[in-house]
Amino acid sequence: MTSAPTLAPDRVFLVVADDSAELEVALRYACRRARKTRGRVALLAVVEPGDYQHWMAVGDLMKEEARQAAEQMLQKLAERVNEWTGTMPILYVREGARGDELLKLIEEEPSISILVLGANPGPKGPGPLVSMLTGKMVGRLRVPVTIVPGNLTLEDVDKVS
What we know:
Layout: E1 12-16, H1 23-36, E2 40-47, H2 56-85, E3 90-95, H3 98-108, E4 112-119, H4 128-134, E5 145-149, H5 154-160
Parallel strand pairs: 1-2, 1-4, 2-3, 4-5
């Protein structure tokens, strides 16, 4: 007699939230894959430091405003994730350099199993995170990276996911 197969723990598809045009296709891909594999989506927003040391009070206010803007962006994206997957995403807000905070989060959270990034299709290259993570930092990753071309339509993403 064979026993029923056990379900694998949730896969967590991490998407870095920003204001780039390619975010939508990366998010759609992550949502489709999460839904099909009974996984979850996680969203990371990073508030990068400014150079306001000589204006401490102004710098604190600007940092707080940037954090609030990041949280608002995550809430809007969370609604879309819920619409596309039927579940609420895991939300992370970090302060620091985007690449460093991304790597730290992946190291600290064992549930994260896949990183999904959108690539800018323009002449300036795929974007700083894609360049960093496919270059000198690739050896520091413990999870696979899926790069979604930013010039795909949502329908294209649906076909391949």
